[in-house]
Design a protein that fits this description.
Layout: H1 9-15, H2 21-25, H3 33-41, E1 44-50, E2 56-62, E3 69-72, E4 75-80, H4 88-95, E5 98-104, E6 111-121, H5 124-127, E7 139-151, H6 154-159, H7 176-184, H8 189-202
Antiparallel strand pairs: 1-2, 1-5, 3-4, 4-7, 5-6, 6-7
Helix pairs in contact: 7-8
Length: 204
C-alpha cells in the first residue's frame, strides 16, 4: 500500500485538477448578511480543534436555531454546556486556538464553513442570553473569524442525510447502552441504559 501513498502536492494535483475560479473566490473574511442568516437558522455546529502536537478532535454543539450568536462581522459566540466534562476540545483550544466550524441547517444541502481563532470566556456580559433549554452556558467560545464560505451540497446529496427514506430503521440502529457497556465494562446494559436516560432527562 505504501507505494501508492500520496506525499506531495504535485502528486495530489495529478488526482485532483486545480479548483475553479468560483470555488476560490467564494471565501469571505467577514460574517456578511448571508453568513449571519445561515448561522441564525442553524441548530447544529461541528467544532474541529487540535492540540499543540496536532492530535485532532471534533465536538458537536447544538441548540435551538440561532443558539450561536454573531457579535459582529468578525466574531461569534458558541455557548458551551457542561456536557461529559472530558474537556477534550476545550483543552485543545487552550494549547492551540485555531478552530474550524461546520454549520448545518436541517433539510439544506449546503453547509457553512468557518475558520478562526477561539478564546474561552466567562464574561457575564457574553454569557447573558446564551442559556440553552433553560440551562446557562458554562462558558462561551469566542471565535474571531478569519475565513468563511459556503460548502456545496454534493456530500449531503450523496449521503441522503436529510432523506428519511434512506434512514436505517429504528430497530436496526446501534444501541448506545450496549456500546457504552462493552467499552466501559462497568455494570450491565440495563444500568448503562438507565444512566443514559437519567443524563438525557436531567443534564441536557
Amino acid at each position: 500500500m505504501q507505494e501508492h501513498a500520496i506525499t506531495t502536492l504535485e502528486q495530489l494535483r495529478e488526482v485532483y485538477p486545480a479548483p475553479a475560479e468560483r470555488s476560490l473566490r467564494k471565501e469571505v473574511e467577514v460574517l456578511d448578511r448571508h453568513c449571519r442568516a445561515f448561522i441564525a437558522l442553524s441548530p447544529f455546529v461541528l467544532v474541529a480543534s487540535a492540540d499543540a502536537s496536532g492530535v485532532c478532535d471534533v465536538s458537536s454543539k447544538g441548540g435551538p436555531a440561532g443558539f450561536v450568536r454573531v457579535l459582529d462581522a468578525h466574531r461569534l459566540l458558541i455557548p458551551d454546556a457542561t456536557g461529559n466534562r472530558r474537556l477534550d476540545s476545550l483543552q485543545n483550544m487552550l494549547e492551540n486556538p485555531q478552530v474550524g466550524l461546520l454549520f448545518l441547517i436541517p433539510g439544506l444541502g449546503e453547509t457553512l464553513r468557518v475558520t478562526g481563532r477561539v478564546q474561552l470566556s466567562r464574561d457575564p456580559a457574553l454569557l447573558d442570553g446564551l442559556a440553552t433549554g433553560g440551562r446557562p452556558a458554562a462558558l462561551a467560545l469566542v471565535v474571531s473569524v478569519e475565513l468563511a464560505y459556503l460548502h456545496c451540497a454534493k456530500c449531503i446529496m450523496r449521503s441522503g442525510l436529510w432523506r428519511t427514506d434512506t434512514w436505517t430503521p429504528a430497530q436496526d440502529l446501534p444501541s448506545a447502552a450496549e456500546i457504552l457497556n462493552d467499552h466501559i465494562g462497568i455494570g450491565d446494559v440495563a444500568e448503562s441504559a438507565a444512566a443514559l436516560v437519567d443524563s438525557y432527562a436531567n443534564r441536557i
